[in-house]
Amino acid sequence: MSENDLIDDQDGYDLDQSLAPAVRLALAAGSSDRLNDLFEPLHAADIADLLEQLDHGQRRELIVLTPRVVDGDVLSELDESIREDIIDFLPENILTEAVRDLDSDDVVDLLEDLNEPQQEAILDVLEDADRVAVEQSLSYPEESAGRLMQREVVMGPEHWTVGQAIDFLRSSEGLPEQFYHMILVDPRMKPTGYVTLGRLLGARREVPLKDITEDSFRVIPADQDEGEVAYAFNQYHLISAPVVDENDRLVGVITIDDAMIVLDEEHEEDILRLAGVGEGGSLTDRVIRTTRNRLPWLAINLVTAILASLVIAMFEDAIAQVVALAVLMPIVASMGGNAATQSMTVAVRSIATKDLTASNVWRVIRRECAVGLINGLIFAIVMAVVGVIWFGSPLLGAVIAAAMVINLVVAGLAGTVIPVILDRLGIDPALASGAFVTTVTDVVGFFAFLGLAAAVLL
Questions:
Q1: Smallest Cα–Cα separation from 280: which of 47, 420, 113, 445?
Q2: pTM
Q3: What is the dihedral of CA 316, 321, 326, 332, to 10 degrees?
Q4: pLDDT tens digit string along 23-33?
Q5: In order of start, what are the domains of the chain with their CATH numbers?
């Protein structure tokens, strides 16, 4: 069976849906040969996906039968909660082989999410030089460039020629498996530029390296937030970038694959936070962890719902006299909530990508309010007709139409302004915007609709 056979034609690069059941059958039969046949053609990322489809007991049995299925590349691809299980199951000699195959940045990534005994178990199997490099990286703040970088760097003096650089690369042992640039340094180990491998191989031997350096050269401070690093890679189309310490000396390099992983994680976190499930939300999380992540945000939503209910209670007499108000209230609140979510999502994403700034914030706010006004007018006409046809009351149609316009304009305003204010206060807008925006649209929607109804219909 080839790797291509394991790809579902309907879903691009998804694994064949029959693969997981086949693995379970092989586990039930205790057939290590069959398991090896199934896993052998798979890429490390596909093996990781497959392991995540198995339950805790099946993963343990798999490791017992075929421990060599899991190597360093597979460990790097696994979800962190699954990775802890796998490391606990792996025999020490297999774990040693797996970790020694990894670059220093992958080892650091592996260690970050593990408990202290598991960290020590992995550090103990590293060679002394590798252990020192990893421990130095771990000394940097979490989610910083120092944690993201790899210590294996290809560098040379800035005065070298192309010929000297090529001779150095050919004679060197222990070069990284993948690298994109040779970094040039001065006598104080400060990076001054870099040369791509393509230009290095395409230039004549006597050409000075300084003459073929790239304009895209950027230096990353080791304590810089990894989100800023990912932004720089995306903004300036970087392939790799040197990392420097507080004295501007070269200490490592970050490559595009690691930067894009961070960018993907940032996007995922924003989506999860907007949905109110915190920073975690993996399908492999245990029940207790998932409950703990979601409970605080459900509690906040409960408080905001109570605030909206208090507004409704203020107009209890009006609702009792005009029962149609109770029927139409959810429509106003729902439309406002959906419109606000649309504006909020655009605003949060624009803040994350640095597209929404002080120079254009008022233009964006005006645009969202204008969009809310136009949409409000369109749906106001629709709801006015509904009010007349459904309840036979032109006044009721006019009330819900006016409330619809008010709430959609406020939704556009709140959906943009609230994330901006939270960002100015140093609060993650993706994490906190939803609760505030929902409260505003619910309270304004109910107050506008019921207040107008009480004033006009009673």
A1: 113
A2: 0.67
A3: -90
A4: 999 999 999 99
A5: 4-139 (1.25.60.10), 155-274 (3.10.580.10), 287-457 (1.10.357.20)
